């Protein structure tokens, strides 16, 4: 394994306090699947402060959901944590922002009436009961429409004659909802919008022909609204998405210290902020975002051969076409196992902190056999469409002669975190012949330097690069989009988002890049073959352990 050193940015430079007091910082806020995170940056992307708040989805009434009350209390807690961090780092109170941007988990179903009141609990990307609706849409559009897309959830509700459907006034995403409450504007960034409904070839609006096809469906013709009437306006990166209102400032900061007026960036999905955070916005680049779920985004040079069930077509925040490989599961089961080991250490009277726990056990995984000794790990807390598993059951399985050591167990856990992603990426890289020069990565699983990064490089047979701010993830990416929007408003923006990132943000950033390892690639290929074979066991587990 080879990689370059990563330098840490200076977070307490002399002029930071003056910049903050002048209200010249940019805030990115992202509602992720397990944490709400905030990142505050200057014009060059330097992180001036962070905040976070842990939250969890719940399974209620046969749906994975998050309460919007929990969302607001979490946002306020996260912002308060950011204010505290800024005060401790720089000795100033945060009262004014230059710009703000909201990001969140993509997809799902957030249905509101004409007054903006929620009609049914938020249905997240994790719900997979929309198969019939997605299949009908895919055949109608001649395009792969995933189960988790908002339009799939909408048609599912229509086909089920759900009581609230005729009263629909707005259909949006979690990011779009929060943005509307902060600014009074019902808009979506095109990247987030591309997980709601297909985007036109122009890259700046919903596809008008497919909107007409949707309207022609038998189940839709008698409804009292049309889809264009209830969908938000689509914006590309840098466009005017409003400003933080006085009511929005009070929602974000109930203490009343925060002043209104910050420029608002178009709200984006976590896929788009991941691309920005890793500078993966140009053809032949891609990024992997790894958290509770994982997805790979590859910016395309040319169209694919045709619709493929494994591949979603979305866009960058600027509207350029992207192939997306999405998996419902990534680090959730891995985190649960490490929590078990952490508890064991406590019982022994030698508790260890999270950083030491993860680095120690990840290090053990790096020492495991290249094929993980025949140990197979399925991290399926929920169903996994990439591998045709309708109902997930976390599973560890091995043959009697497998080399079951701690090192191989941990290597299998790391392989398993990216297992479904590796299956999907084969369709893109091998079957479609898409070329990648480098894959950028971000997410908490990469905090232990080099290890998960090497696993991913060998799994994808592609060099994997990690930036110095990758650990900040989507909140940092959203802050960069906010800074870009502010620069366009002031007439000082680079000609494109790509140029802005290259010239203003990443020019001084160092990357840690790992190359592929021949033995690692061969070992992973052997492990993945066993993983594919064992999928039938995982499917049966879902049937038997109901």
Automatic annotation (TrEMBL):
- Asked if the record carries the keyword Kinase, the reply is yes
- EC number(s) from the headed UniProt entry: 2.7.1.17
Domain Carbohydrate kinase FGGY N-terminal, first and last residues per copy: 27-251
The residues covered by the Carbohydrate kinase FGGY C-terminal domain are 287-485
Q: Which GO terms describe its molecular function?
A: D-xylulokinase activity
InterPro entries per UniProt: ATPase_NBD, FGGY_C, FGGY_Carb_Kinase, FGGY_N
User: Per the record's keyword annotation, is Transferase included, yes or no?
Assistant: yes
Q: Which Pfam families match?
A: FGGY_C, FGGY_N
Q: Which UniProt keywords apply?
A: Carbohydrate metabolism, Kinase, Transferase, Xylose metabolism
Q: Which domain of life is it from?
A: Bacteria
Recorded family membership: Belongs to the FGGY kinase family.
Q: Which protein are we looking at? A: Xylulokinase
């Amino acid at each position: 394994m080879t990689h370059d050193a990563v330098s840490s940015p200076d977070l307490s430079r002399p002029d930071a306090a003056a910049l903050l007091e002048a209200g010249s910082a940019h805030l990115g806020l992202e509602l992720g699947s397990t944490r709400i995170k905030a990142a505050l940056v200057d014009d060059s992307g330097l992180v001036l402060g962070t905040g976070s708040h842990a939250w969890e989805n719940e399974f209620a009434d046969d749906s994975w959901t998050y309460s919007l009350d929990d969302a607001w209390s979490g946002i306020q807690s996260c912002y308060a944590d950011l204010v505290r961090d800024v005060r401790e780092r720089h000795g100033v109170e945060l009262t004014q922002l230059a710009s703000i941007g909201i990001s969140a988990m993509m997809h799902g179903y957030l249905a509101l009436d004409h007054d903006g009141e929620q009609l049914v609990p938020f249905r997240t990307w994790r719900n997979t009961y929309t198969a019939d609706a997605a299949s009908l849409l895919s055949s109608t559009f001649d395009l792969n429409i995933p189960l988790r897309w908002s339009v799939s959830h909408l048609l599912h509700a229509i086909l089920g004659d759900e009581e609230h459907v005729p009263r629909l006034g707005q259909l949006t995403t979690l990011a779009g909802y929060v943005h509307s409450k902060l600014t009074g504007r019902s808009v979506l960034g095109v990247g987030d919008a591309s997980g709601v409904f297909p985007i036109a070839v122009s890259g700046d609006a919903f596809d008008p022909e497919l909107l007409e096809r949707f309207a022609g469906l038998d189940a839709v013709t008698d409804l009292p609204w049309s889809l264009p009437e209830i969908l938000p306006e689509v914006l590309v990166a840098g466009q005017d998405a409003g400003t933080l209102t006085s009511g929005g400032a009070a929602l974000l900061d109930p203490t009343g210290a925060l002043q209104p007026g910050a420029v608002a960036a178009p709200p984006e999905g976590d896929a788009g902020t991941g691309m920005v955070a890793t500078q993966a916005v140009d053809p032949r680049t891609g990024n992997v975002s790894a958290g509770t779920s994982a997805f790979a985004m590859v910016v395309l040079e040319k169209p694919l051969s045709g619709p493929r069930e494994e591949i979603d077509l979305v866009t960058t925040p600027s509207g350029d076409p992207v192939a997306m490989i999405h998996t419902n599961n990534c680090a959730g089961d891995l985190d649960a196992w490490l929590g078990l080991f952490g508890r064991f250490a406590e019982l022994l009277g030698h508790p260890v902190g999270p950083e030491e726990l993860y680095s120690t056990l990840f290090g053990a995984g790096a020492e495991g056999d290249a094929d993980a000794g025949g140990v197979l790990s399925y991290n399926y807390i929920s169903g996994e469409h990439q591998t045709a598993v309708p109902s997930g059951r976390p599973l560890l399985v091995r043959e009697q002669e497998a080399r079951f050591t701690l090192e191989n167990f941990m290597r299998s856990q790391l392989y398993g975190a990216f297992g479904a992603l590796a299956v999907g990426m084969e369709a893109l890289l091998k079957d479609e012949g898409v070329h990648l020069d480098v894959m950028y990565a971000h997410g908490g699983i990469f905090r232990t330097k080099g290890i998960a990064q090497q696993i991913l490089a060998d799994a994808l047979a592609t060099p994997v690069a990690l930036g110095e701010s990758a650990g900040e993830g989507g909140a940092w990416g959203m802050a960069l989009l906010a800074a870009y929007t502010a620069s366009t408003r002031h007439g000082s923006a680079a000609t494109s988002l790509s140029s802005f990132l290259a010239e203003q943000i990443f020019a001084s950033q160092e990357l840690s890049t790992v190359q592929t390892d021949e033995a690692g690639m061969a070992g992973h290929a052997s492990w993945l073959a066993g993983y594919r074979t064992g999928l039938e066991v995982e499917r049966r587990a879902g049937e038997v352990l109901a």
